[in-house]
């Protein structure tokens, strides 16, 4: 059925568009964008007054745990969470079981995503076989089956020689290598930021240098190999500075940040040892946090990602040192960005759309989505006044391990369109 | 009454809390010197000693303290408990809690375990050492020993020497000493120093020789041997040479300065045998103070004000 979204404020920095428009969706594409479009029989009219319509949001860093850890999340439940959070696209990390390191595994994910019938899933393949850092994965095979990028996320590739080989090899395809930067010799046993919090809570620290050193190494490998490099979940001021310098030198380097590194820091970890705040990389200092916010605003950071990391209750309801790393994020990312940065006037809507829709598509080498006639109708409609109470009942995700439980946020997606199909209707996931 | 419900760490304790614990412990001195070392203060109270990691002295100290207060106690060890069968901490605590107990004494390998216990029971929890985090009852017995020796704590200069970063003893002793007005200096090789000394608000140095003659108390930490050779320090021998307390260093200490060690000692490593046994050593006084202060902590936290202790 055609949809006519009336009176929404359309923001698309690719077109310099930041104004109220009517948008007509016919079939899988946008048919017309104009100041006023008349309704017609058989067209469902959606009142967009007071809302914002933007190119569909993309989260280029999620863990859907499927195959292998379906008790935490499946492609279907993950897709429901993504849709509920306002996303039209997600890129899934390959640390599944078996690891997504061959074309068959890419196909498995795409098939299951199609069955779920919600968002686009853009699988990321492993750089090395089994993410073991020892031998090249079948990268070309995965490209041909539809892999969007390559990463050993969850680990850094420890050997500089192996990482060089990976980047050399990837450079023949139009794909980025995504680096989880962690020198394990420096971060061994670390479960919390090295510094105030490791001292206060009596646990092994995960030093900032463990991340920064590998960012430096991979930037130099980018220079050597010419392979496009994307730094995953950047968490320190110094690491961001290295990326800034690389960009100034014209190297093909991009990076991403998570909401938890933007809005939480090590001081939020209290004597309660709330394991939902245990992350990899860990929550850093308040200083790092503020520098990351600045980097997102000034354009040094390209993408906002969630690193959505579902874990079962028993994997989090335990002592900190043995709890699993990570927080879910798909359903809180947009409300957090709207509440903490857009509402406060620190981040413009145009910049929000860049970091949550435009830039991730570019990094993943996906076709751009623009709010103009002829573009595929992957769109997100956002109510900036929608109140969100983050409770366990709020989540569509199979796991509830959110670092933001208990927060009251303002602003959320109400409707999502994927290829012209309405996957979120008034805040409710509508599966085909 | 103490300002805290549980005894989890020392930085939550006020100076008044610590003074109450030490004064109450002093009042138990007389009980412990009797032929019949028992008072009815905690009669009918049930205390579970949950020792999830091996312990000899802390566990026996608590068990004796419980017996002397007439509490009913049950000791569970890591190797006999369901924890080794893969049961979660929450399940273990809820199971014991369902049997209606009044207090948990917990020793654990993982930081934050006592706090997690408080989330799964209404019983009172005493931390008997959690990972590298805190060991508040050790700090109280140390303070008791030092105060008994000098008659006060404020203004004393205390060096804590050794494996600072991995030490729950240091983690709880340094804040408690500071709360009581003592001046703490942390001494250890850079590979054993704490990540953020500012958290303790103490100076940190790698040279024992620079500070030893200025100290009222030299507190030697145990070096855990599994953290030793080939990793953070090159050898037992070199550690002894740089950081061990030997008679040469003892000879430079102030006349009335004392030596403490939480035990068990590695004689010949962090402390030489003749030093451990010399007149300055208060190591056995610390053990004795352990029973007294643990009696005081259990008594105060279980609301024992209904039972007269002394007089």
- Average pLDDT value of chain B? 93
Structural class designation of chain B? alpha/beta
Rounded to the nearest angstrom, the radius of gyration of chain B is 19 Å
Instruction: Report the end-to-end length of chain B measured between terminal Cα atoms.
Output: 19 Å
| Radius of gyration of chain A, in angstroms, nearest whole number | 21 Å
Oligomer: heterodimer
**Major β-sheet annotation of chain B:** 5 strands, parallel
CATH-wise, what's the superfamily of the largest domain in chain B? Aspartate/ornithine carbamoyltransferase
Give the low-pLDDT segments of chain B.
Answer: 306-311
Amino- and carboxy-terminal Cα gap of chain A: 13 Å
Write down the CATH class of the largest domain in chain A: Alpha Beta
Which chains have the largest interface?
A-B, 21 and 28 residues
What name goes with the CATH superfamily of the largest domain in chain A? Metal-dependent hydrolases
**Average pLDDT taken over every residue of chain A:** 97
């Amino acid at each position: 059925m055609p949809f006519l979204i009336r009176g929404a404020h359309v923001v698309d920095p690719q077109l310099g568009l930041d104004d109220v428009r009517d948008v007509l969706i016919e079939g899988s594409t946008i048919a017309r964008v104009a100041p006023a479009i008349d309704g017609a029989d058989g067209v469902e009219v959606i009142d967009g007054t007071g809302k914002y319509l933007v190119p569909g949001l993309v989260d280029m860093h999620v863990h859907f745990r499927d195959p292998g850890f379906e008790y935490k999340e499946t492609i279907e439940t993950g897709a429901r969470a993504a849709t509920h959070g306002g996303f039209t696209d997600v890129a899934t990390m390959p640390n599944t079981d078996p690891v997504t390191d061959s074309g068959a595994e890419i196909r498995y994910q795409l098939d299951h995503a199609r069955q779920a019938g919600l968002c686009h899933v853009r699988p990321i393949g492993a750089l090395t076989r089994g993410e073991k850092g020892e031998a090249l994965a079948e990268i070309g095979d995965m490209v041909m089956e539809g892999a969007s990028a390559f990463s050993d996320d969850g680990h850094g590739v420890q050997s500089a020689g192996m990482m060089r080989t990976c980047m050399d090899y990837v450079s023949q395809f139009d794909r980025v290598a995504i680096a989880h930067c962690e020198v394990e010799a420096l971060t061994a046993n670390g479960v919390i930021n090295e510094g105030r919090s490791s001292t206060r809570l009596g646990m092994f620290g995960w030093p900032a240098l463990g991340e920064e050193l590998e960012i430096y190494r991979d930037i130099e490998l980018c220079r050597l190999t010419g392979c496009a490099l994307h730094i995953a979940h950047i968490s320190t001021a110094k690491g961001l500075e290295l990326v800034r310098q690389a960009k100034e030198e014209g190297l093909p380097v991009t990076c991403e940040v998570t909401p938890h590194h933007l809005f939480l820091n090590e001081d939020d970890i209290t004597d309660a040892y709330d394991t939902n705040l245990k992350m990899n990389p860990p929550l850093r200092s308040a200083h790092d946090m503020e520098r990351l916010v600045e980097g997102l605003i000034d354009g040094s950071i390209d993408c906002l990602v969630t690193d959505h990391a579902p874990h079962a209750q028993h994997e989090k309801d335990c002592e900190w040192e043995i709890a699993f790393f990570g927080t879910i994020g798909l359903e809180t990312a947009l409300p957090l960005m709207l509440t903490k940065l857009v509402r406060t006037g620190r981040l413009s809507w145009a910049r929000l759309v860049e970091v949550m829709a435009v830039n991730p598509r570019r990094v993943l080498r996906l076709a751009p989505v623009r709010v103009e006639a002829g573009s595929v109708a992957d769109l997100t409609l956002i109510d900036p006044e929608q109140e969100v109470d983050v409770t366990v009942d709020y989540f569509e995700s199979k796991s509830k391990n959110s670092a933001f439980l208990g927060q009251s946020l303002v602003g959320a997606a109400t409707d999502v369109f994927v290829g012209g199909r309405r996957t979120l209707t008034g805040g409710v996931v509508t599966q085909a | 009454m103490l300002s805290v419900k549980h005894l989890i760490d020392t930085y939550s304790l006020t100076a008044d809390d610590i003074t109450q614990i030490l004064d109450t412990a002093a009042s138990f001195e007389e009980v412990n010197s009797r032929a019949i070392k028992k008072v009815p203060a905690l009669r009918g109270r049930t205390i579970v000693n949950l020792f999830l990691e091996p312990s000899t002295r802390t566990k026996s100290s608590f068990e004796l303290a419980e017996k002397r207060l007439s509490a009913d106690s049950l000791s569970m060890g890591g190797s006999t408990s369901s924890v080794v069968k893969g049961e979660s901490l929450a399940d273990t605590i809820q199971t014991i809690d369902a049997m209606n107990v009044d207090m948990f004494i917990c020793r654990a390998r993982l930081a934050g375990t006592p706090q997690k216990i408080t989330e799964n029971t209404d019983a009172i929890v005493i931390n008997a050492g959690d990972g590298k985090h805190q060991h508040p009852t050790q700090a109280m017995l140390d303070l008791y020993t030092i105060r008994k020796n000098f008659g006060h704590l404020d203004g004393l200069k205390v060096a804590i020497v050794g494996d600072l970063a991995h030490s729950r003893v240091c983690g709880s002793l340094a804040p408690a000493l500071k709360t009581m007005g003592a001046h703490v200096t942390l001494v250890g090789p850079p590979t054993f120093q704490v990540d953020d000394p500012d958290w303790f608000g103490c100076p940190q140095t790698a040279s024992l020789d620079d500070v030893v003659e200025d100290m009222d108390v030299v507190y030697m930490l145990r070096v855990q041997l599994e953290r030793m050779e080939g990793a953070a320090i090159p050898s037992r021998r070199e550690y002894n040479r740089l950081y061990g307390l030997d008679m040469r260093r003892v000879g430079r200490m102030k006349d009335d300065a004392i030596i403490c060690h939480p035990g068990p000692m590695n004689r010949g490593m962090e402390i030489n045998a003749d030093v451990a046994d010399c007149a300055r050593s208060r190591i056995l006084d610390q053990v004795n103070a352990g029973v007294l202060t643990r009696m005081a902590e259990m008594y105060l936290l279980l609301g024992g004000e209904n039972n007269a202790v002394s007089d």
